[in-house]
Amino acid sequence: MGALAALVCAVVTVTVAAPSAPAAPDPGDQKRSVDRKIDALKDHLDDTSAALSKAYSSLKDTQDKLPAARDALEKARAAAVAADQAEAEATQQLEVAKANETKAQGDLAKATKEVATGRKRLAQFAAQIYQQQGFGQLDVALSSTEPQDFADRLAMVDTVLDVQNRTMERLSTEQAGLTALEDHLSALRVDSDRKQKAAAAALARAQAARQAATKAQADLEALAATQTKAAKGYEDQLAADKKQLASMQAEAARLRKILAARAAAARAKAAAEAKKHPKNGGGGGGGGGSSTGSGVLSRPVRSGWVSSEYGMRFHPIYHYWKLHSGRDYAVNCGTPVYAAAGGTVISAGWGGGYGNRVVIDHGLERGVGLASTYNHLSRIVVGGGHVSRGQLIAYSGTTGTSTGCHLHFETLENGNFANPRKWLNTLS
Q1: C-alpha distances in angstroms, 325 versus 74, 252, 254, 348?
Q2: What are the CA-CA distances from residue 322 to residues 314, 316, 330, 423 (Å)?
């Protein structure tokens, strides 16, 4: 497998930003994306516990949601600001409309009063004429006794009639203006009513937008708290996992000393036998590990596929290059595990981070002390002694630091890790 870039960030400090933003991604899509990432990482998490993997997944899940939550808050705040501005404008327009309506009402009252006054004067004038049984020019002229009196009376009649005509015209104009003012006031009242409704709707939108912004901020703060908790859980589990990893390294060092000593003893014994019986040569395998095909070892499981090969890789959680010390076979928990070759069981039991573990010493092969290990087992069926090639020794599992069911198979040369491919036959 190729190396993966580091994916884990420290605890995120939540800072509320200024307005703008796209819609938040679907949480379901985010969860599925995280699940795919975790599945892709499993091949690289061979020395990682399921608890750490879960803490890592939880941390990544909240980290993936934080940008969308911040965007939602920014968008909600922008909407609240826009709604407040719209509400302020609508309120201002309503105030102007009410002021126009008030002024129009004053103008209408004034015009109504003027029309009433004009009508009163005209009524008084008509009553006076009626009481005087007419006021025609001929009546005035006939009632005069002198020529000068006749002329004066005729001029007076013209003046009175002129005043009467102007009063009628003014009254007509005032009546038309009154009608126009009434129409204008009706239009202003309709406008005021419309703006009153618009202002109320704008206020409701502004209140809803502010509530949405408040909820978005609360959601972000809750997510930030979850993020902090997830990060703390991840850090605590990472510390525990590294402690487990250290125990695996200590177990490997202990086993290395044992196997190196056994290999040295086997070589010394082989040399002594060669001296006693020169014709036999210095052949190998004190553990019955003669090869079949082109390899010394057989496949330890009869199903599954190789999910991870031996080699260096960048660990996505520990954040350093480390050796994947064996070969992983992707099999279900409870799959039978067989001895890869004949040999002596020198360890069968709990191996710390390795979980349930079996170690078989195959003796000298090709001049080195060869051993194989079977790790993360759910159950062990051999406790020690000699085993034959293909003999059932255990069942696969996910004990120790393991993210899922599989068999972690290792080969050791004089106690040091080696690539299993070197020892397995071509069909493995």
Answers
A1: 49, 10, 16, 19
A2: 6, 11, 21, 22
**Contact criterion met (CB below 8 Å) for 206 and 89:** no
* Distance separating alpha carbons of residues 340 and 273, to the nearest angstrom: 27
pLDDT in tens, 185-205: 788 788 888 878 888 888 888
CATH topology of domain 284-422: Glucose Permease (Domain IIA) (2.70.70)
**Distance (Å, whole) CA 379 – CA 396:** 7
- In CATH, which of 1.10.287, 3.10.20, 3.30.950, 2.40.50 is domain 49-246? 1.10.287
The domain locations on the chain are: 49-246, 284-422
Measured between alpha carbons, how far apart are the two ends of the chain, in Å? 18
Q: Which of 31, 28, 22 is nearest to 70 (CA)?
A: 22
Band of pLDDT at residue 342, cut at 50, 70 and 90: very high
| Gap between the Cα atoms of 362 and 417, Å rounded | 15
Give CA–CA dist 227/185, Å, rounded: 62
pTM over 0.90: no
Average pLDDT over residues 301-328: 87
Cα angle at 387 between 384 and 389, to 5 degrees? 150
Structure tokens belonging to residue 174: 């005032």
